[in-house]
């Protein structure tokens, strides 16, 4: 009674890992393209507007990555 084949689980884990790596790389590129350090501005300077903008851009990038992997 193998309900879920092992190959499907492995494929899902591989695609999840690839998606996370692509997201991290795209976030690092986005951080380099901005004139300031995003993490410092958000965490130390408490720039809420920048945090909302980065969150929205992250969701957009994740949607693109998910649709490309799917």
Describe, in plain words, how this protein is organized in 3D.
This protein is mainly alpha-helical and 70 residues long. The chain has one domain (6-69). It is 80% helix and 0% strand. The protein has three helices and no strands. Helix 1 runs antiparallel to helix 3. The radius of gyration is 16 Å and the shape is elongated. The relative contact order is 0.12. The mean pLDDT is 87. Its main location: membrane. This is DUF350 domain-containing protein. InterPro entries: DUF350 (IPR007140). It is found in: Cell membrane.
Number of helices: 3
Helix share of residues? over 70%
Q: Which structural class is indicated by helix and strand composition?
A: mainly alpha
How far is the N terminus from the C terminus?
Answer: 27 Å
Strand segment count: 0
Topology as a string of helices (H) and strands (E): HHH
Shape: elongated
Mean pLDDT: 87
Main sheet: strands, sense, barrel: none
Strand content: under 5%
Transmembrane segments: 6-29, 50-69
Pfam family, one: DUF350
Keywords: Cell membrane, Membrane, Transmembrane, Transmembrane helix
Subcellular location: Cell membrane
What does this entry show, briefly?
With about 70 residues, the protein is mostly helical. It has helices spanning about 5-35, 40-45, 50-70.
